Amino acid sequence: MIAYGRQSVNEDDVEAVAQVLRGDWLTTGPTVTAFEHALEALTGATRCVSATSGTAALHIAYAAAGVGPGDEVVTTPMTFVATASSALALGAEVRFVDVEEDTANIDPAALDASVTDRTKVIAGVDYAGHPIEIDTINETARRVGALVVEDAAHSIGSTYKGRAVGSLADLTTFSFFPTKNMTTAEGGAVAALDAELGQRAHEFHFIGLVRDRDRMRYPDEGPWHQEVHEYGLNYRLPDVLAALGLSQLKRLEAFKARRAAIFARYQEGLAGVDGIRLPTRREHVDPIWHLYPLRVLGGRRREVFDSMRAAGVGVQVNYLPVYWHPLFEDMGFKRGMCPNAEQFYAEELSLPMHAELTDAHVDQVIDAVRAAVGG
After folding, report:
1. What digits encode the pLDDT tens for the residues 45-95?
2. Does residue 180 sit in the same domain as residue 320?
3. Where does the signal sequence lie (predicted)?
């Protein structure tokens, strides 16, 4: 079976982890600090805070933004459920707006028509690695006094109008799950443009601990003293995983180049095939392709999915519209509210996309698609 997605780990990665295992720190220590600084250099963010997962990163970002009961978070349904459920965990009310018909990213026009003075956060998702239209979204956010969270689980290394993802929104979240563009085995990160937001993110992921004597309520308690002023959780990434992340960052450009080559080979090999629609890329973005989201037309997606799996090709579907999940259905959300997202879901089929794919693998996938759709 050709894997739909998988990590790319080499001997340098193994040795980087082994060095930490031989050292004094396993949990959060100097390697985490080095990893966070490397992320800051890559993204242009003021502060990066590593985390135990992409879901944790979203929870941290919403908490740093001050999301709480009565606040409104407006987001896209075409994403993994954590983009919305992490806001629910803080007591927010989540609202969904439809996606662009071509990119499956949140539609800026629909968003602008939907925000209110209760909107605390706008959360967009860089679907498949293609950045959202952040300039227009930022304008909408400024108009209503909201912050923007860019869920960049798919897009570390992407650029928008020459600017790195991580330097575009108030808060940006990354995922380093094994199938993502780089990995820490499990992990994520939050990038903040504002230093105060970055500090809030750090403290929330560090159990709320305050160690700055000037901020303490009881600073003379003793040199051991630390205080908790606001609720936080232990979302700290350990050094042993940060070591893998540091090593992987050195190959991120190579991963991006290989994924771009695979994307181009799919585009060429599937051009002109009836019954399918190929993904799009806008000229002002330079994506790192996390997914290759083929669209199967004519109501044949399930048929083609089954045929591809039977042919030894590990395809997947990304994603069920979030409000179709029973959790949200039981909250009163109804099918039909975001027709572009629902049509996209009905047609979407993710072909294998990862740096370990050979050209022969890609050609095998292309042949399987052609056979499945009769092209």
Report:
1. 999 999 999 999 999 999 999 999 999 999 999 999 999 999 999 999 999
2. no
3. none
pLDDT digits (tens, 9 = 90+) for 175-192: 999 999 999 999 999 999
pLDDT at 307: 97
Specify the number of domains making up the chain: 2
Residues 122 and 219 in one domain: yes
Please give the C-alpha separations between residue 153 and each of 218, 276, 329, in angstroms, as whole numbers: 40, 26, 25
User: Looking at residue 224, what is its pLDDT?
Assistant: 92
Look up the pTM and report it: 0.97
Low-confidence ranges of the chain (pLDDT < 70): 375
* Pair (287, 233) in one structural domain: no
Helix (H), strand (E), coil (C) string for the chain: CECCCCCCCCHHHHHHHHHHHCCCCCCCCHHHHHHHHHHHHHHCCCEEEEECCHHHHHHHHHHHCCCCCCCEEEECCCCCCHHHHHHHCCCCEEEECCECCCCCCECHHHHHHHCCCCEEEEEEECHHHCCCCHHHHHHHHHHHCCEEEEECCCCCCCEECCEECCCCCCEEEEECCCCCCCCCCCCEEEEECCHHHHHHHHHHHECCEECCHHHCCCCCCCCCCCEECCCCCECCCCHHHHHHHHHHHCCHHHHHHHHHHHHHHHHHHHCCCCCEECCCCCCCEECCCCCEEEEECCCCHHHHHHHHHHCCECCECCCCCHHHCHHHHCCCCCCCCCHHHHHHHHHEEEECCCCCCCHHHHHHHHHHHHHHHCC
